[in-house]
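Predict the assembly for these two chains.
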Amino acid sequence: MRKILLSSIILLVGITFIGRLSYLQIFSFSPNQILEDPAIKAVYDYPERGYIYDRNGKLLVANQPAYDVMVIPREVKPLDTLEFCKLLGIDKERFVSQLKKARVYSPRLPSVLVPQLSKEDYGRLQEKMRRFEGFYIQKRSLRYYDTNSGANVLGYISEVNEWDLERNPSYAAGELKGTTGIEKEYETILRGRKGVKYIQKDRFNRDIGPYKSGTLDTLPEQGKQITVTIDKILQEYGEKLMIGKHGGIVALEPASGEILALISGPTYDPALLVGRERSKNYSKLHYDTISKPTFDRSILASQSPGSPFKTINALVALQEGAITPETTFHCYNGFYVGKRKRGCHCGGGTRNLNSGIYLSCNAYFAGAFRKIYDQFPTSAEGMDVWEKHVKSFGLGTFLGYDLPTGRPGRIPNKEYYNRIYGDNRWSSSTIISNSIGQGEVEVTPIQLANMTAAIANRGHYFTPHVLKKIGADDISIPEFTEAKHTTIDRKYFEPVVQGMAEVYKKGTAARLQIEGIEIAGKTGTVENFTRINGVRTQLTDNSVFVAFAPVDNPKIAIAVYIENGYFGSRYAGHIASLMIEKYLKGEITRVDLEKRMLEKTLEDEYAKPYSGQPFKINERVW
Amino acid sequence: MSVSGKSVLKRLDWFSVLIYISLVFIGWINIYSSTFTDDNPSIFNFASLHGKQLFFIGTSAVAIVIILALEANFYERFSSLFYIISTALLLGLFVFGKTIAGATSWYDLGFFNLQPSEFAKVATALALAKYLSDIQTDIKRQKDQIIAILILLIPAFLIIPQPDPGSALVFFALIFVIFREGLPLYYLGIGFMVILIFILTLMFGTIWVSIILGLLLALFLLLKKPSFKVPIIPVGLIYVAIVLFSLSVNFVFNSVFEQRHRDRFSLWLRLEKDPKKLEEIRRDIGYNTYQSEKAIESGGKYGKGFLEGTRTKGDFVPEQHTDYIFSTVGEEWGFVGTASVVILFTTLLLRLVYLAERQKNDFSRMYGYGVISILFVHYFINIGMVIGVLPTIGIPLPFFSYGGSGLLFFTALLFIFLKLDANRLNELT
């Protein structure tokens, strides 16, 4: 016992040590050493963010230098505070509190004292900076916008937050990343790759040379420039027309699915979200809950489509053999659902497909809709077929365009109605509102535009997208370059297109004809409701318009959705007509029409529900 | 005596010598790395610390030659004298001592700072062996037990006020020698129990300690052979004593200890349950240990390579070339390196136990045990501290840490024993 006591202890200690060492060096060892090591500092070299150009090569977004005044608290020597504050353009209290904040953060590490000086301030300060020890100016790169439009589609960049840092180790605190729009969608392309230099530090955080003689260091990789499908002129023009109106405009090139303009009103100048006033401006925009400028109505506002949806119902009815172009329905200034009469504005009379479309007859489409369902033993089976056709136009889905937000809208199906009314306790009459684009169907403006493009192409569409080129190369993304076919045969489109062309000739938009351009379109006047103090209240109808032009070989398909704009031919129709002319002709010939659209606003209309007073709707203002 | 120089080399335990050389070499490599800077890469620069250490290694080699050349019984004969000299030197520190880093532990010899506590370790090991091997000493006698223990305690108590509690602790380790020679083992048992109950009380509280102990006792009473009579009253008294001791631990810990002591225990035994606070304590008082643990951890399986330890280069671990030299091994050579060093030490110590046990001469055996005890306690406390299983106690790693006195006297300690071992056959005459 005495002889082996010490030996046993020696062995035991040896085993304990090896156990502990294996715990430390094998089990606790984290392979991500280089970034966690306090002895190694990674210094990043940021490449310039890629520029963004419009479809015609016009500059949209570039970069501008900004200058942060930095401070290393430990190195600050007594100074003439008053003079320094005057140079920086801040008051003394702010200076003292910022300095204190920096000291609390770290006396050794640099902190931002005054962010993002203007070029002029920088110029003034630069030469005098040497006199103030512990302060220096650091150059940063901010976004510069060569347009005051397109904030919703271009998006903005902002500092990465904790969540990003946890999810994506390639970001470091304080870096900028695309937060919305194109900036977010094409972040990796625009951003490039930062270069890194590893520097060996001692425990006082002093540099003592490159780590591993710099063999692990990398050079920055420039961000690529991208060309987007947006037409700068059209986008800017559309936004100008939208002043004082709430809603969205989406213009597509039917032959490619390229988004020519993506306009949301009201919007804001993208430059507001750059620079020193950024957070102030952001809160102002973010907390404007009435006009919601940061809410991109062109892709997020999911609302009833109204009459433009009739074209789809017509196509489904033709495809299913429920009607022929010659089939007629009689309009009694409305139609009957059981004993209840539903109204119609077309003037009454016997309608065929052509006049049904150009006069937007509700009775005609209610009849056609019923006939689709009547062909099937049960409403549910009819619903399945109807749903399949409607969805083939990209409605009720996210569409798959390359912007980071969206809404699927709603194309109801049999499960939806079974849930509301009970299994099979509904019929085509129950859901008749869908025949005229009211009821349960909901679409976003971009879906409406895409639907129009599919009609313009007579049966297929290309997924809408904003990316045109990366660097100098045209995109070759099959998702965007391959046509998606609807389930409607090509031959059924022509009569519908004819009807839509008549809309401009003798129909609801006859006054909006552009000389020399044959347009096909469809108006929509959409009943809509809101809740005021819990009471369901009807508001002035939404004004909707879809159109494409020229009728043969279409170059543009457009959807305009103006909230509470009353008749489809009024705001939406005017705007669509002007946009088409601007895009196809490059100039506006109908100056009066343009002037009216630029001047008229709907602010009074939007103020009504918030006034607290009873109000009239659908007033005939002009 | 008929021992020629040739036969000493022949009978020398080369296995131990080889391990010794390995440890000194590995130690120097790591000192070089931890004091290395890019603008001072020369190995033979005697102004640099690694250069000085090289000089100390040379000095030690000379010392080895002298030690082996001297007659074996020289050490036994003069052991009392050495002890008296070392005691005088320790006393002298109170008057002539030089203070380095807050401890008055050195004599300034101009070219060299002599640390007499290192010398005292050798002297005390020799003196203890001499006393115990004396024909008149009977370790079963209480008077002789007390004298033996006093031989350890005198230098220990002279060193504590320097202050250098770490070195003082080393002398207590010599108690192993006395155990080997017959001090009743229950002394060790009681000591061990006291430490165990102290730790258990801190970790689990008095209530749990008394309950568990009571349950163990009950279990024992149930399972014992019926024929075995348990002396109920003494056992009961011991149980009560343990519970009282456990209670007093709480009192001492909360009322007598200062916060910094409490923090050390909180850190060591992970008493602080809030991980944030624990991390705070760790960064604060446990800074050295924290840094050395992190440095070792960052080495991984195979280490970052020689001269590639980033934390070593950045001087993140304080005292890295002295007490924390093992963390350099951990960072640059990884688990392979640290495990090798632990295995080398374990092998050396076991080898020395084997050598001690084969001595025919009582003095040689006892001195051998003294050497093992001293080396073991250094190795145990130092590595235990560096890898964070023991609280911080400043004590060098034998043969490894930078320092002239240390290396010289560890070498002397070992080689005096190897000389005695080489001479063991001659003792028969």
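Chain A has a mean pLDDT of 89. The two ends of chain A are 112 Å apart (CA to CA).
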